Amino acid sequence: MKIPSLINLATALAIAMASGSVAASCNVRPGLASDTAQTIVELAVHNSSAVFTAQVTAIEYIPAEDQQVKGRKMQVVKLATGTWWKGTPSEQITLHTNIPRDADGTDYIVSTEYRYEVGRSYLIYATSAGGHLYADGCTRTRKLAAATGDITELDALKAQAN
Question: Which InterPro entries does the protein's record reference (predicted)?
Fold first, then answer.
C-alpha cells in the first residue's frame, strides 16, 4: 500500500470517528420533549429556502468555483422535481454539494453531506448560498419512502396557509 493511501485512509477514519454521526457534526437545535412532528417540520421549513420532492437523474462533478486546489471539482446532483411546498417550482434543478474530487479522482469524505443515489427519490429541504441550492445531512432531507410523516405535516401546513 502506498503512503498517500495510508494517509487518506487514516484521515477518513479520523473524520468518521470524530464526527460520530452527521447529527453530531451539525449545528442543530436539540429536540425538546414538547416538540411535535408539526413543530419539527415547521422549523425545518422555516430554515429552508426550498422544500420539494425529487428524483435524482444524475450525479456529476463540475469545476470548483474556488480553485485553491488545481483541478478540483465539486459534486452536483441533478434532480427531476415533483411536489413543491416552498420555493420557486421548477421541473429540474441542480443541488450543489460540498463533496470535492481532486484532479487525480480522489473523493473526500464529508461527514455532513447527504449521500444521494441516482434513481432514488427524496424529500428535500434545501438552503440557498451563493446562488446555489444545497441539501446536506444537517437538514431533514431523506429518502421519500421514509418521509411520509413529513409529507403529511407539509400538506397540513400548506392547507393552513391557504
Answer: TIMP-like_OB-fold
> DSSP letter at 87?
S
Over its C-alpha atoms, the chain yields an Rg (Å, rounded) of 17
CA 52, distance to chain mean position in Å, is 13
Instruction: Tell me the pairing of strands 132-134 and 92-101.
Output: parallel
**Is residue 53 in some structural domain?**
yes
Residue 94 lies in a domain: yes
For 107, which DSSP code? B
Task: State if pTM tops 0.90.
Answer: no
Residue 63 sits in a domain of what CATH number? 2.40.50.120
CA distance 87 to 99: 24
The count of domains in the chain is 1
Q: Is residue 146 part of a domain?
A: yes
Residues 130-156 have a mean pLDDT of 93
DSSP at 57: E
pLDDT in tens, 112-126: 888 899 999 999 999
Q: Angle at Cα 45 formed by Cα 42 and Cα 50, nearest 5°?
A: 165
At 14-24, the pLDDT tens digits run 333 333 344 44
Q: Is residue 105 part of a domain?
A: yes
Tell me the residue range of the domain where 106 lies: 22-161
